[in-house]
Request: fold
Amino acid sequence: MLRKSIIAAAAALVAGGAAAQEPVRIGLVLPMSGPFASTGRQVEAAVRLYMQENGSTVAGRKIEVILKDDGNVADATRRLAQELVVNDKVAVLAGFGLTPLALATAPIATQAKVPQIVMAAGTSVITERSPFIVRTSFTLPQKSVAMAEWAAKNGIKKVVTVVTDFAPGHDAEKWFKEAFTKAGGQVAAELRVPIANPDFAPFLQRARDAQPDAIFNFVPSGQGSIFIKQFVERGLDKSGIRLIATGDLTDDDILNGYGDAALGIVTAGHYSAAHPSAKNKAYVEAFKKANPGMRPNFMSVGGYDGMHLIYEALKKTGGKTDGQALIDAMKGMAFESPRGPISIDPETRDIIQNIYIRRVEKQGGELYNIEFATIASMKDPEKAAKK
Ligand code: VNL
Reply:
């Protein structure tokens, strides 16, 4: 403690007095390369947009973002997070495109007492792995339970689940089944597809053979194109079997490339580029302007809202970067996101948000997820069940 304050005092002297404070550094660790680079690009673009709109000074402190590419390798995420804490003295760690990357970093957040803002990953358990984790993305149980309850109420009785075989897929499979069977439905088969270079064709064939009313799908952001391509190649779009999914399938970043085969897919998701609010219209317009050729997707809002959370927490602490003080400031925070109203559950540090039921429709020549029903202020069902 004493040594720390001597070093701080010396640093202030060198910098020319108390007024010249060090910037508040945010270490942003994302998959900017590799198969999930689209998630990294979306989150980074939204973080930059937030700063462009809100300035880079908060509570008198300059904000500096240090971006690192982990290439979707968990060991790299952990090493980069460690270096950001030790060498760059970051006040906050943020990003985390996939669950294994977020989990690998949790022990560092705990040890260093540095807030870890999970902006993209969605397995329920993540927030339980460190008291310094706060999530601004979503949980798969939120979307899967919402989809199951809608399906059961809308004439779907028998379903085959087809999910990607890693933690968020397991959450989606488990919580879809839990809610669907509770509502009287039947899950005839649960199929898991490898995450690396996925070939959905054999799984789609097995799903078809079971003659369900619908297939329920989860794929991670970016893998929807190949799923849809193989769904159509197998003739499943003309089979009478309906396609329902978490919103990850109809990712706004790539949805337009699916073609008319995507029309009518029903999904449960927390964000649509077509969400009808003034806040979202402004967001989509500014995002597109700053990133020509891109449309913001559900990953982007996790980055945008994560920055808002950090800015507001710093305002509350008067610019102090003590990790526990920042976490305490974030607990219970509520604000309007481009996705709609959100808040941070003060007990679990997880996100509470609306989940929307949407249908893919064409508007102005483009494919969009058009919201037609809302499950308001949904907590993570897995944590709710543990209580
Ligand atoms: C995860 C969940 C990743 C949902 C995703 O895309 C996604 C995760 C990269 O928790 O790893 O759409």
